[in-house]
Amino acid sequence: MGKSEFLEQDLIPAAQKSGLLTAYLNLWDAREHPRGALISALARAGSPRGVSALIKKLKAPLKKVKASAKVSGLAEGSLEADLTEDPKIAGPALSDLLRSFDRTDRRLLLILDEAQVLASPAHADLAHSLRAGLDIRKQTIKVIFAGSSESSLRRMFGRATEPFYNWAPIEPFERLGAEFVTAMTHKVNQLSRYSLSEREALRAFEALKRTPEFFRRYLQRYLAYAELGPRAALDDTLAHVFNDSGYRTAWEQLLPADKAILRALAQGVSDLHSLPARRRMGEELGLGKAAPLDTPKNALRRLQKEELVVKLEYGHYQIQDEGFVEWLRQLELED
Fold first, then answer.
1. Of 243, 272, 295, which residue is a domain's last?
2. Which of 50, 147, 212, 243 is most buried (most C-beta within 10 Å)?
3. What CATH code is carried by the domain that includes residue 267?
4. Residue 265 lies in a domain
5. What is the pLDDT of residue 335?
6. Same domain, yes or no, for 113 and 151?
């Protein structure tokens, strides 16, 4: 939590100040066309003219780009799509861009956020070619892989069958704690004539699952209605976080079988097709017997289509949003 903000607002400015070129790409936003998005990010980092310079250099018949070249955003999106669709262009383009950073005066910090997208079988070719290009450039291209799921990244770098096996060490992103709460409480007390005690602030932080974003919402609510006290601010924040965050809306639209799968995943059940898991599902669905094998299979297919669940490997699934996991656990406690 907070990693993307840290990477974009703290790390990248510090890297640029030290003389490094920087390229940032959130792969979750580019999961449909990661190769083209990566090429665009490298082009922007390596040239002041970025994507337009790359288009000119390629001299390729990119119809979509030509049609939308007057609008830089559309041109870039079109370039990503066209490069992805044409491996004869994409492969050499990626290699050329990586090669452009071979000079010691053009050192690059490449940051790939939500890097677990590269572990998808659909992007195996990209992962292999990227590793090959980075292996020989460790002196000039430094890489940070970040992700919202530590378990997914550990599989990506710890399984022998993965392209990036043993390529980089895993470092957990330290979660904010009491020092963060103290600093934020001090700022609040500078702005409000109603003092907020650290004890109340820490209590709220724990109640909000130690989530910085939720805690900031709590502080904003407190500043707006400080005369009502910290308890009122916390109650209001909890209500919004767990009811109006979109989780409840998504939950209420799901089929009963999909809900049963999500409950099981949130509780750590790994083999969703096992007889015990299907018996439990059958009880939840009121079948009076174990659910058929097709029931979890079809539910998982729907949940993946809705991007609520991601398949990590054969037979192993995970809820994509860690916040949704916490919400489901809270829902179980309420029930």
1. 243
2. 147
3. 1.10.10.10
4. yes
5. 58
6. yes
The bridge status of strand 108-113 relative to strand 141-145 is: parallel
Q: Are residues 99 and 72 in the same domain?
A: yes
Is it the case that residue 182 has pLDDT exceeding 80?
yes
Domain count of the fold of the chain: 3
Residue 249 lies in a domain: no
CATH number at residue 73: 3.40.50
Contact 29, 77 (CB under 8 A): no
Instruction: Give Cβ neighbours of residue 284 (< 8 Å, ≥ 6 apart).
Output: 256, 259, 260, 263
Tokens of 149: 């799921």
209 and 68 in one domain?
no
Which residues lie across from 23 on neighbouring strands?
110
- Displacement of CA 115 from its chain's centroid (Å): 8
| Nearest to 216, CA basis, from 187, 195, 190 | 187
- The answer to whether residue 164 sits within a structural domain is no
SS3 163: coil
Q: Which of 253, 240, 248 is nearest to 211 (CA)?
A: 240
Other beta carbons within 10 angstroms of residue 325's beta carbon come to 16
- Host domain of residue 262: 254-334
Q: Are 279 and 321 members of one domain?
A: yes
> Using H for helix, E for strand and C for coil, what is the string for 16-37?
HHCCCEEEEEECCCCCCCHHHH
Tokens representing residue 319 in the block:
């809820």
Model pTM greater than 0.85? no
| SS (HEC) of 248-287 | HHHHHCCCHHHHHHHHHHHCCCCCCCCHHHHHHHHHHCCC
Q: Does residue 172 form part of some domain?
A: no
Question: Which residues does 316 contact at the CB level (< 8 Å), separation at least 6?
Answer: 270
